[in-house]
Amino acid sequence: MRRRVEVFIGPFGSGKTEVALNRSLLLAAQGVAVTLIDLDIVDPFFRARQVREVLAQAGVSLVAPEGEWAEADLPLVIPRVFEALQRPGCILLDVGGEAQGALVLRQVRALLPEDAEVYLVVNPYRPAMGTALRIAEMGQALEAAGIVTVTALVSVPHLGDETGADVVRQGHAVVCAAAALLGVPVRWLAVREPLPGSLPSGTEILPLRLYMRPPWEEPEWTAPAQASRLGGAQRGQDRH
After folding, report:
1. What kind of fold does domain 3-215 have according to CATH?
2. What is the pLDDT of residues 7-34, one digit of tens each?
């Protein structure tokens, strides 16, 4: 099976990691050999490596830092990444969109095939992506910096639990306008399950099952000791 590479890049809040996870699991369910490379060093709370067991059970090979480096916010590319990029099957890269994330992507750019798909994942309801022009400028900046050329957008218009069909339609229209400015297609409209009614036509729907949760929503999570002490001190100050 020939190698296919898909790069998912986007800033915090874009939904990039959820899209990469769902795409990986969908391909694996279709019998495709899938490798997911977690190069997201930007946000320690939303990384693909948090769902190792889910990916392993689905047959997805995850390449990510382990042990003491698992939560490092450093522009590190572990040696396994270079080997993984040569594997057959579908290789997906989850990359942070800010300056640090771009630095990591630059380190592996030479290993990306010419036909690699680079998807800029966009939530138009985030401040940094609130207009078609801002989204287009984000894509143009990646190309101008010599990092990658965006080949398509992924539309993820949502406002959390307040997301309905109108929110999706209005946000998706902004993403489509940005795609027109960049001269690229919108590859998927990614929408959280259960899907709201009356979704826009003309773009393939990628249903999203949410896997990422911040640690404070996990039942076994407790605040770090230092934070607890600071919180206690602050509460003490508030009483005076």
Report:
1. Rossmann fold (3.40.50)
2. 999 887 889 999 999 999 999 999 999 9
